[in-house]
């Protein structure tokens, strides 16, 4: 299915399953939506998997973070949904957190799956770089131009002076689901889980960043637990 963004650009979304609406945001930024294996673990949810603007089958060009969020809002309105649940993986988890900050009234809840948190920390980056050779190989189509534009704008967004105050007031329930063997350190998401009024932290033992490749049944159980209010 394609839907028109606010400026008329046609954007692509896959739909699977049947049940309450669930928006799945993949990482990158700038990657095609690779979360179909995750959607397949959640057949009792109606899962929406959009390709970002300028990526995959979606039209458009490199864009900024607030434009990406506006595109997601246009999808919600196109579908006629008052509210939905959002599940984001990796950078998609961080995008989901920004969406919750900008459009809190549109979310039932947010699940941040293997996210990194609102940070650009040297120690975190050093730990990530040191473990890269251990990560499971996962190929996905990605637009370098979209990646550069969104990564740069994300780093500007997280420097806003009032960011932490806004997070401390966020009324959306947020679950941070971390993978125990992820090379991305967990301390920032643990801090966020403590900071947010309705935050909680869960961990999937033995799993790494792309947990569906190795821990499908366990991930399914963890996601169902995370999605349970």
Automatic annotation (TrEMBL):
InterPro entries in UniProt: AB_hydrolase_1, AB_hydrolase_fold, AB_hydrolase_sf, Peptidase_S33
A biological process from GO: proteolysis
UniProt entry tagged with the keyword Hydrolase: yes
Entry keywords, A to Z: Hydrolase
A GO cellular component entry from the record: membrane
Domain AB hydrolase-1: 20-115
Family to which the UniProt record says this protein belongs: Belongs to the peptidase S33 family.
Annotated protein name in UniProt: Alpha/beta hydrolase
Organism: Deinococcus radiophilus
């Amino acid at each position: 299915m394609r839907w028109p963004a606010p400026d008329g650009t046609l954007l692509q979304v896959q739909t699977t399953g049947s049940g309450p609406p669930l928006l799945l945001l993949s990482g990158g930024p700038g990657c095609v939506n690779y979360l179909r294996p995750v959607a397949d673990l959640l057949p009792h949810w109606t899962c929406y998997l959009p390709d970002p603007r300028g990526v995959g089958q979606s039209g458009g060009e490199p864009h900024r973070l607030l434009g990406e969020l506006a595109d997601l809002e246009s999808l919600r309105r196109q579908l006629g949904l008052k509210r939905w649940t959002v599940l984001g993986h990796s950078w998609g988890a961080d995008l989901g957190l920004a969406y919750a900050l900008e459009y809190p009234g549109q979310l039932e809840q947010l699940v941040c799956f293997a996210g990194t948190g609102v940070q650009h920390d040297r120690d975190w980056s050093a730990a990530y770089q040191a473990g890269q050779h251990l990560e499971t190989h996962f190929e996905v189509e990605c637009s370098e131009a979209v990646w550069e534009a969104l990564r740069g704008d994300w780093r500007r967004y997280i420097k806003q002076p009032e960011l932490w105050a806004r997070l401390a007031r966020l009324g959306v329930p947020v679950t941070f689901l971390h993978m125990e063997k992820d090379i991305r350190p967990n301390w920032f998401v643990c801090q966020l889980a403590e900071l947010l009024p309705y935050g909680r932290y869960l961990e999937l033992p033995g799993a790494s960043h792309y947990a569906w490749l190795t821990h499908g049944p366990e991930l399914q159980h963890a996601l169902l637990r995370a999605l349970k209010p």
